[in-house]
């Protein structure tokens, strides 16, 4: 997965099968989200929508986001590259001053991009935009927000769920703003695990890390996703 800014910004991630690098939060308390100031929103929304449509592809989701500490909304769109299930997709982000980013991520049989050409404009304004990637035996995710005018990874999660002779079932979470990490082991017995609520991959996804340039085990979603299934 590769992230590009305007002309070229080399923000990238480490997927299960593709090794790349990512800019990440340099730590500190996340900004406090303010109520949105929507005075200029109609004109900026229209500009962003024109840009999304000019890029081509098929729309999945779009709307406002609140990715930093100012009161002007950012904008995002998840766009499928084509009708083909494995053609890939983009997460597009625009800051309120017109600065733009494009994250190119993979799709396949487990990680689809749902086409909604007439998708409603979402007004929930999440504080981070998430990409997740599911694979046999686990899933990874990374959440992105703006810090210091840059799009960076602020949270990563990696969950491994092996029950076929491999004694490995755990979830690792990193809060890159707070510089905190948490490792949670889950029950290796499948019957016992089936009744234990554990973080697993989100079921529906358009299918989205210390110092700048550090590598991380994360990969490409719906922002602020909450685990909704048990470890299998």
Features:
single chain; mainly beta; seven-stranded mixed beta sheet; five-stranded antiparallel beta sheet; 2 helices; flat
Layout of helices and strands:
Layout: E1 2-5, E2 11-12, H1 41-55, E3 58-65, E4 74-80, E5 89-94, E6 100-105, E7 121-122, E8 129-135, E9 138-147, E10 150-162, E11 168-175, E12 180-185, H2 190-193
Parallel strand pairs: 3-7
Antiparallel strand pairs: 1-2, 1-6, 3-4, 4-5, 5-6, 8-9, 9-10, 10-11, 11-12
Structure explained in plain terms:
- There is one protein chain.
- The chain is mainly beta and 232 residues long.
- It has one domain.
- It has two helices and twelve strands.
- The strands form two sheets. A seven-stranded mixed sheet has the order 2-1-6-5-4-3-7, covered by helices on one side. A five-stranded antiparallel sheet has the order 8-9-10-11-12, with no helix packed on it.
- The chain is flat.
- The model is unreliable at 1-22 and 192-232 (pLDDT under 50).
